[in-house]
Amino acid sequence: MLTKLTTSLLGGLVYFLASAAHAALPIQHWQTASGAQVYFVESRGLPLLDVSVEFDAGARRDAPAQAGLASLTARTLSLGASGLPEETISRRLADVGAQLAASFEPDRAGMTLRTLSSERERNQSLDLLARVLQQPDFPESAIEREKARTIAGLKEESTQPGPIGEKAFYAALYGAHPYGLPGTGKIETLTTLQRQDVAAFYRRHYVVEAAVISLVGDVSRAQAETIAEQLSAGLPRATAPLPALPVIAPPARGETLRIPHPASQSHILLGTPGMSRNDPDYFALYLGNYILGGGGFASRLTDEVREKRGLAYSVYSYFLPLAQPGPFQIGLQTKQEQSQQALDIVRTTLTRFVTEGPTQDELRRAKQNIGGGFPLRIDSNKKILGYLGLIGFYQLPLNYLDDFANKVDKVTLADVKDAFKRRIDPESMVTVIVGGDGEK
Questions:
Q1: 49: closest CA among 232, 231, 235, 233?
Q2: Domain extents for the chain?
Q3: Among 164, 187, 315, 352, which lies 20 to 30 A Cα-Cα from 207?
Q4: How far is CA 80 from the centre of its chain?
Q5: Which ranges in 42-81 belong to alpha helices (H)?
Q6: How many CB atoms lie within 10 A of CB 96?
């Protein structure tokens, strides 16, 4: 058996290795001549280059009457550009073994590319990416096809308890704020969208002043600078600032929505607006949530709901930090006949955690698990690319990854308890239950 001293030494070694991994990730940052922000990590281990170009063009830029426009724009960017039809773009990408895909989130949207770093393959794939970003054709046929595909998916989702609950949860949590709109849109709004709407959204939001270019891979700094200029030089320029989003206010009181559904299991979601990406309480809330429900089998919710009572196979909680406070969400599925019991246990566990906070032992183990697992988050070029985009879009410090383990380690019991007491009110949570006849 491991002694306490051995365990302590292993924990210290984990933090040392995590810190060493972070320090070995030098992020270079500059701005192109046209105004795009660039983040670059040189990585010579594999003959690959990963690129992303992102904009303030996520779902939060949808208007209620045009819900789904942001997503439709992102998905149709690569379906024809500068006179090249979709089939030609796909064939040329396949010819050099490159992968091009749209990225889309509540706050941001854009394109990602993975290509071989050898000159021919790199040049051909980057030329296609530049065309897609700077000269999208938005063919009418492609837009109508994507609309039809999305509408068919929405009709299917309207029968499924998971999507039904998720959409009702966000709508109840955020009301008229854009975060409350479904990112893929609604059937009634998608049917009204036209090609000119997509083209106008592109010109308004895919502008060079808002572009964040991330590059990871087998190229030099000089090559990265050339690539960034190539990708940014022909982007549209902003004609006016984008409007500020409305302020998000936490619910004044709790609300429970019960939605009937014939499924054998009830889907339960609870939540409240949580934290933003630059939130001063970020690390205290992040660490506390790991203990509450984010740490899998090591979490309190799993212990109380699954291990002790067998009420659900899985129960989780998480914070989704966005530019504005994204949701703090708890979720589980359970048999309809025991849904109220499971919900009561979740609420009791949450209330106790907010009132009392974690124990010192829970805090210590959470820090060790987070510190030990963090190097796995940056063990591939794609993962690093994701962090570069995150750092660039949300304007996080370049040493964000270097400092992550240290900031987690500095969080105290008092920090976690204070943050949860101020930020999470169990009495004002939005609760959505999909299942049964909709009655309590």
A1: 231
A2: 25-232, 255-434
A3: 187
A4: 27
A5: 69-76
A6: 16
Partners of 430 in the β-ladder: 255, 271
Question: From start to end of 302-382, where are the E strands?
Answer: 315-319, 327-335
Taking phi over 0 as left and psi of -120 to 50 as alpha, with beta for the rest, 68 belongs to left
Q: Token match 């040493």: residue?
A: 399
Cα separation, 243 vs 285, whole angstroms: 29
Q: What DSSP state is assigned to residue 378?
A: G
User: Is 36's pLDDT higher than 50?
Assistant: yes
Residue 263 burial (10 A CB sphere; 0-12, 13-18, 19+): middle
**Mean pLDDT in the chain?**
93
pLDDT digits (tens, 9 = 90+) for 24-34: 589 999 999 99
The pTM assigned to this predicted structure is 0.92
**How far apart are alpha carbons 349 and 386 in whole angstroms?**
34
pLDDT at position 375, please? 75
Q: What is the pLDDT of residue 377?
A: 77
What does the pLDDT look like over 43-92, one tens digit per residue? 999 999 999 999 999 999 999 999 999 999 999 999 999 999 999 999 99
Topology (CATH level 3) of domain 255-434: Cytochrome Bc1 Complex; Chain A, domain 1 (3.30.830)
Q: What percent of the chain has pLDDT over 90?
A: 89
Q: Which residues contact 59 (CB under 8 A, 6 or more apart)?
A: 70, 71, 104, 105, 106, 178, 179, 181, 183
Most distant CA pair in the chain, distance = 68
The residue type found at 375 is: P
For 232, counting Cβ atoms within 10 Å of its Cβ (0-12 exposed, 13-18 middle, 19+ buried), the class is: buried
Say how many C-beta atoms besides its own lie within 10 A of residue 162's C-beta.
Answer: 14
CATH superfamily, region 25-232: Metalloenzyme, LuxS/M16 peptidase-like (3.30.830.10)
